[in-house]
Amino acid sequence: MPFVEKFNLPSIDLIKTAIVSKIRGIAWRVVESQEEIATLELVDTLEEQAILEGLLEKSKPPLPENCRDLDYLLATPFRYPPLKWGSRFGRKHEPSLFYGSENIPTALAETAYYRVLFWTGMAEPPPSGTLKTQHTIYSTKYDCSAGLYLNKPPFEEYQDLLQHPQDYSGSQKLGTIMRELGVDGFQFISARCPNKGLNIALFTPYALAAKRPDEKQNWICETSEQHIMFSGQGVLFKFNVEGFQIDGKAPLPAS
Fold first, then answer.
1. 45 secondary structure, DSSP code
2. What average pLDDT does the structure give for the chain?
């Protein structure tokens, strides 16, 4: 049975007809901003920290050639195949994608889910009952010459598959199809955002419209057993842990 039928996906011909010549906009992405602070705590001087940072950089996968001129914030998402679980639209052996969100609240909802996973994966919670981390939220423009809107026809009837909270097999198959059809990037509805905000994914760094982020913001995250809170720019966002759970547990990605 063709995998398009196996996973109840639109036919390849139908997917082809849905490809548009332009998708462009702004994507927001959240990253931890503690790397240099963390390594500084392990050494005595800035010179030693520079050496340690260099060693850590060498231990990472090499940057793809088409990312050499990009700021590290833009290049890093393309750096890490294979991934342990893959991602929503990428299988373990495929090059990784750049994922972002149409707005900050949606980006924070996606991040909150992974903070829940981090908390549940800890051997022991901190004595204080909360974990505070520093994060950078940045924006960048994207411009795809071949794109798809997975939130519009003919994909409306496939949203249960595309937004499944833990089974990524169908969406990963669609990702493979899009990659083979030459799609540069696409928009899709977030499975983690309670307001069903839009996410963006890019298969290639060539879909980025700039080599540097447009805007950076500093935020603080507080993680606990009950909630995830983000504070920055004079506003506060709170997500309840139970909102990400299935049968009382946070689902692992791509499980």
1. S
2. 88
